[in-house]
Design goal:
Elements lengths: L2 E4 L2 E4 L3 E2 L5 H14 L3 E3 L7 H11 L7 E6 L8 H13 L4 E6 L8 H13 L3 E7 L3 H10 L4 E7 L7 H9 L3 E5 L11 H10 L3 H10 L4 E2 L6 H8 L8 H8 L19
Parallel strand pairs: 3-4, 4-5, 5-6, 6-7, 7-8, 8-9, 9-10
Antiparallel strand pairs: 1-2
Length: 272
Amino acid sequence: MLAVKAQDAVIPILGLGTWDIRGKTCSRIVEQALRLGYRHVDTAQAYENEREVGEGIRASGLPREQVFVTTKIWWTHFAAGELEHSVAESLVRLKLHHVDLLLLHWPNSAVPLGETIAALCKVKREGLTKHIGVSNFTVALIEEALQSANEPIVVNQFELHPYLDQSKLVAACRRHDIAVTAYSPIARGAVKDDAVLARIAAAHGKSPAQVCLRWLVQQGIVAIPRTSKIERLTENFEIFDFDLAGSEMAEIRGLARPAGRVVDPSWAPAWD
């Protein structure tokens, strides 16, 4: 599988998102994804499925080193001491000695960012994760995090799809050699009824969702579409056998709109 390189990290460019997938459905979909060829699985403490994700990884039969595992620390665990304890609990649930990527799930202004970044760097040095990063961080928060970090911050994971212009944030990440991971890459299914995407998809014998994912990976952006359906797993994976023309890439980019954001909880930062 193609991968994105950022500093000392090599990240498979297509992963499985597992938000809101639990129980046997979660373990089964993770196992099947890995059998199909996925090599990147994304979970989080807040998803309450780390245990099932670990079960799916083991059931796949793949050697541990062949699976890139990401989990995310919930923002109520950002204080020094508490962060380290929560990461240890995540590893127990996953039944892993380490994860490949550990992210701060959302910024938390109630805890000094320097304190949280120091704790995040500490767990990396202790071997609980190979790489560290952030999620839902704005340009200003990235700059602030980098000032406190003495380990490489290799990823910023945030909402990214054709309806949301994140060019400013993507550019800031690239300036600092930080990889971009796109969550909600098909806008939680909203793309399926888009006339522009449908026309481009028809020209390639693909679906609008596949076109969205191709649009992202063709920019060197990691995409982690979430699905609980086996047939969608296969569809999402079949995006490496076609290319979008420059004019098509630009047309898709032109779909961005002011109200395009899908994920905007009460604890979100002031977006760029």
